[in-house]
Amino acid sequence: MAKYQKVKGTQDFFEKSILKLRYLENTMRRIAKNYGYNEIKTPIFEHTDVFVRIGDDSDIVTKEMYTFLDKGNRSITLRPEGTAAVVRSYLENKLYAKTSPMKLFYFGPMFRYERPQAGRYREFHQFGVEVFGKSTPLLDCDVIISANQIFQELGIKNYHLKINTIGDNESRKLYSEKLVEYFEEHINHLCSDCKRRINKNPLRILDCKVDGNNPIIKNAPKIHDFLNQESKDYFSEVLSILDYYQVDYIVDENLVRGLDYYTDLVFEFIIESNDELDGLAFCGGGKYANLVESFGGMDIPGIGYAIGVERLLSIVDSQDGWNDKIENDIDVLIISLDKLSKLKALEIAYLLRLHNIPTEIDYEHYTMKHQFKLADKLNPKFLIIIGEEERKNNIVSIKDNETKVEETISQEKIISYLKGKLL
Ligand code: ATP
Ligand code: MG
Asked: Which is the closest atom of ligand 1 to the Cα of 312?
C-alpha cells in the first residue's frame, strides 16, 4: 500500500480519465463560445462572507464549506460553487458598465464537505454560465438551450429537463407564508433539518434530501396556486419558447433548488439509468432577481447554470459514449536498433515535435521485441524504424500501424510524408 493516500472524496485524473475530463471541458468551452459567452476565472478561495451570501442556512453554507482562518486571521473559504464569486467579481470590476447582457462562463474545481458517494465528491469540477443584466423569456430559453446542446453533442441519452417557477418576490412571499402554515401543522413528520427550515426558508423543505418521498412534502401546497399573473405569464412564455424549439421538459412543481438566490425559473437536468447514477442531477440552474442586489449592487437580474463535470463523465462512461472522442496521444513511435541510431531517433523526434507531431522514442532497448511491446502500449499511428542500414543511407522505414503498410523514405521527406497522412 502506498504510504500516502488522497484525501477522502478527491480524485486523481490520469491516462484515460484526464483525457475524458479535458474532452468535456473543451466541448463545453467551444459551445459556450458559440453562444457568445466569455470566460471568467475567479480565485479558488474567497472571503467566507462572499459564499455566505448564497444563503446562510443553505446546506452549502451550514455544512459543506471548507472554511479556515489564514495566517492573518481572515476567514477564507474554498469555493463551493461559482455564482457567488462571479457576482463578486462582476461588481468589483464594474462589468455592469460594459455590455448588457454580460454573458460569462467558468470552468474549475469546487469544494464541498459532503459524504462521498456515487457522483458526489469533496473536490469536483463545474462548468457554468452566468448572464447578467437582462430578464426575458427568450434569453432564459437561450441559456437552457445552450446546456441542452452540450448534452446533445455529447450524445447523452435518457435524460430529461425538469423545470419550474418559484415566482417573483411577491408570489414567493405569499407562497412561503402558506407553506409555513402547512408545515407547522405537520411538523412531527419532518426531518430535523426541515423543522429548522420552517421559519427560515420553508421552500427549501421541498428540496429535502433526507426524505424526498415524504407524503407531507409531496402533498404540500403548490406554488402555481400562488403565482401572480406576471409570474404565470412569464413562465408560460418560457415554456412556449421551449416548445417552439422542441426542447423536451417536465414541469416539476416540487423543484425549488437548494439555494436562496433563485426567483422565477429553476431547472435541472436529470439522468435516468439502471445504476447508482439514476435520478442524479448533472446540471442545475435558474434565474436570480435579487442576488446582485444582495451583494450591494444595483437591481440587476441574472440567470445561470452549473454542470457537474464528474457526473457528466460518469454518465458518458455508463452509456459507453466515448467512441473515438478520446484521442490517442502519440502519433509516432521511433524504434532504433543501435546506439548511434538512438541519437538519430532523438534528432528525428525533435524535428517532428517542432512540427507539432506527438512523438515518442524508446530510450534504452536495442531489440525489436522490446520496442514492439512499447508500441503495443502507446498504439501510435506510425512507427519509424531506424537501424545501421537506414542510418547509413539517410533513410527510415515507416509503417502505418493500422494498415501495416511499410515504406522506405528518405529522412528529409519524413515531415511532408507524415503531414500528408496525419491530416
Ligand atoms: P445535489 O442536489 O446533487 O446536492 P446541488 O443542488 O447541491 O446538487 P448545485 O449546487 O446546483 O448542486 O451544483 C450544480 C451541479 O454540480 C449539480 O447538478 C451536480 O451535477 C454538481 N455537484 C454538486 N455537488 C457535487 C458534488 N459534491 N460532487 C460532484 N458534483 C456535484
Ligand atoms: Mg448539494
From this structure: 20
**Is the model's pTM score more than 0.70?**
yes
Are 89 and 95 in contact, with CB atoms under 8 Å apart?
A: yes
Question: What is the domain range of residue 405?
Answer: 332-422
Q: Which residues line ligand 1 (CB under 6 A)?
A: 81, 112, 114, 119-121, 124, 126, 258, 281-284, 306, 308, 310-311
Does 211 reside within a domain? no
Position 203 scores a pLDDT of 87
Task: Check residue 100 and give its pLDDT.
Answer: 94
The per-residue pLDDT for 58 is 83
369 and 382 in contact (C-beta within 8 Å)? Answer: no
- In order, the DSSP letters of 361-410 are E-SS--SHHHHHHHHHHH--SEEEEE-HHHHHTTEEEEEETTT--EEEEE
Q: Whose CA is nearest to atom 23 of ligand 1?
A: 308
The predicted structure's pLDDT at residue 422: 87
Q: How far apart are CA 208 and CA 215, in angstroms?
A: 12
**Same domain, yes or no, for 307 and 336?**
no
Decide if 88 is inside a domain: yes
pLDDT of residue 258: 67
Domain CATH number, residue 339: 3.40.50.800
Q: Are residues 346 and 308 in the same domain?
A: no
Q: Which ligand is nearest to the CA of 258?
A: 1
Instruction: Decide if 179 is inside a domain.
Output: no
Closest Cα to atom 2, ligand 1: which residue? 281
Question: Domain check: are 275 and 383 in the same one?
Answer: no
Which whole-number Å values give the CA distances from 48 to 53, 61, 127, 236, in the listed order? 9, 9, 22, 38
Residue 92 belongs to a domain: yes
Which atom of ligand 1 sits closest to the CA of residue 128? 14
CATH code for position 79: 3.30.930.10
- Let me know whether 49 and 110 are in one domain: yes
What's the structural domain count of the chain?
2
Q: Which ligand 1 atom is the nearest neighbour of the CA of 257?
A: 6
- Tell me, in angstroms, the distance from the centre of ligand 1 to residue 364's CA: 48
pLDDT tens-digit readout, 238-268: 999 999 999 999 999 889 876 777 889 999 9
The span from the CA of 343 to the CA of 347, in Å, is 6
Q: What's the confidence (pLDDT) of residue 324?
A: 82
310 C-alpha to ligand 1 centroid (Å): 10
CA-nearest residue for atom 7, ligand 1, is: 258
CA of 216 to the centre of ligand 1 (A): 25
With a cut of 50, which residues of the chain have pLDDT below it? none
